[in-house]
Design goal:
Structural class: mainly alpha
Oligomer: single chain
Order of helices and strands: HHHHHHHHH
Distance between the termini: 76 Å
Number of domains: 1
Radius of gyration: 21 Å
Helix content: over 70%
Strand content: under 5%
Low-confidence stretches: 6-15
Largest sheet: none
Length: 256
């Protein structure tokens, strides 16, 4: 009897260790993909933003011609493509990833990251480089802390999801309305709510990624499903980071 109990306990410990190892590998992949996407976004944003800033100050550009900058940001309908293409890709990603191979979904994600870098590159023409770097550092610390909380907490925070998603839609509506009102008070409220909402989403999405992996790991096609889920999870955390950074930049950024 004692031997049987010992075997059961040993088997339980082994299964738990396997789950922990698989979960760690899955989360490492999620954070790895997200980090690569952040590097792509940062490089594109910096290179294009530096040229945009130089062109607006009548200085020589290094990578893009004045004509290209005008086409992308000022005089051509292409500026709407630059602005809205990342949103369109996010909306398509959920359905497209199901039909793509793992390599195709990963390529789609990195292409999206490059477009996002192009879309937000104007921050280098609006804010000083020091304040952008400072805000990025603060965002990194906040994101890491919030994501760690979502990963380690024993509390079920899935109930946050509906409120946070409703908050995102409310935020979008408020931003559209304020395009016409141009109210500084509303702008401040939007920025504050944006920081709170995407801080909450960082913890919520991290726990959801963890929970979804545990649900599919024993599925016959669990490995293939988890591989695509890692890309989807990386996209969610990437968006949480980018939005948290942009809303914090409204508070911490010093304008040129």
């Amino acid at each position: 009897m004692a031997d049987n109990q010992t075997v059961r306990r040993a088997g339980s410990v082994t299964r738990t260790a396997e789950i922990d190892a698989g979960l760690r590998a899955h989360m490492n992949k999620v954070y790895g993909l997200m980090s690569v996407a952040m590097i792509v976004t940062g490089l594109v944003s910096y290179l294009v933003g530096s040229d945009l800033n130089a062109a607006m100050n009548g200085q020589e550009t290094r990578f893009l011609s004045y004509e290209m900058i005008n086409t992308l940001f000022f005089t051509s309908p292409m500026r709407y493509v630059v602005l809205f293409a990342p949103l369109a890709m996010v909306l398509l990603f959920g359905t497209a990833v199901k039909r793509m191979s793992q390599a195709g979904a990963q390529g789609f994600f990195f292409a999206f990251a490059a477009l996002m870098g192009l879309s937000i590159s104007s921050i280098f023409a609006v804010y000083t480089g020091y304040s952008i770097a400072q805000t990025f550092f603060v965002t990194s610390i906040a994101f890491a802390s919030l994501s760690l909380y979502g990963y380690t907490t024993k509390k079920d925070i899935s109930a946050w999801g509906s409120f946070l998603i409703m908050g995102v839609f409310g935020l979008i509506i408020a931003m559209i309305v304020n395009l016409f009102l141009q109210s500084a008070a509303i702008e401040f409220a939007i920025s504050a709510l944006g920081v709170l909402i995407f801080a909450g989403l960082t913890a919520y999405d991290t726990q959801k990624i963890k929970t979804q992996y545990l649900q599919v790991r024993n599925h016959p096609d669990g490995e293939a499903i988890a591989a695509k889920m890692a890309i989807q999870g990386a996209l969610k955390l990437y968006l949480d980071f980018i939005n948290l950074f942009l809303f914090l930049l409204r508070f911490m950024g010093n304008r040129n």
